[in-house]
Amino acid sequence: PERAVAAMADQEPRSLEALNAIIARSEPLVPGATQAVLGEGPVGATLAFVGEQPGDQEDRQGRPFVGPAGQLLSRAMQEAGIDRSASYLTNAVKHFKFEERGKRRIHQKPTAGEVSHYRWWLDRELDFVGPRLVVALGATAVLALTGKAVPITRARGPFRFERFHNRFEGFITVHPSYLLRLPDEAKAEAYAAFVDDLCRAEALGR
Ligand code: URA
């Protein structure tokens, strides 16, 4: 019976800490990841950022947005006047999925099934953090937050997401890794548009 009680408590964590303990103990849906990468930032953060899934660096370090895309995000946040350490950063999917090519581990996009597997956690997480605005970075985050596949080019900008007990103002923008993949001649303009989006999100979250 003690075990059963513990299992039930596991089902309904009472704090972000308790939820994170469950996530940290969980096996990846697709085997391979070193560890679960938990969200980072204070409960009560005004802005929450939702990415796709941890990348190679995040998987090794156990922290979200520390690799190349994360560094670009940090720079853009700073330019938009957003304090990264006061914001909450997390991912739709908590484990890195990759394909091995020689020594490199190539990121693989999570399937819709994988995104829906992790949605329960994301919902609880955002409930505990209670941000004023949730910024969805890219299509996977939008899918996780709305349950719908929406093209970013059309949906970019403010949106409202409502699911279960979550009712948050949101803002949809591109994923920073998209900016890294653009041809050089398109990068500057796309990056400026991304910073603009973050400025708008910052103003909306005030
Ligand atoms: N890309 C993401 O979506 N999340 C991370 O944490 C890092 C890269």
UniProtKB/TrEMBL annotation:
Keywords, ordered alphabetically: 4Fe-4S, DNA damage, DNA repair, Hydrolase, Iron, Iron-sulfur, Metal-binding
Uracil-DNA glycosylase-like domain segment(s): 38-199
Gene Ontology molecular functions: 4 iron, 4 sulfur cluster binding; deaminated base DNA N-glycosylase activity; metal ion binding
An example Gene Ontology biological process: DNA repair
Keyword hit for Cell inner membrane: no
Keyword DNA repair: yes
Family: Belongs to the uracil-DNA glycosylase (UDG) superfamily. Type 4 (UDGa) family.
Name assigned to this protein: Type-4 uracil-DNA glycosylase
Full-length numbering of the shown residues: 265 to 470 of 474
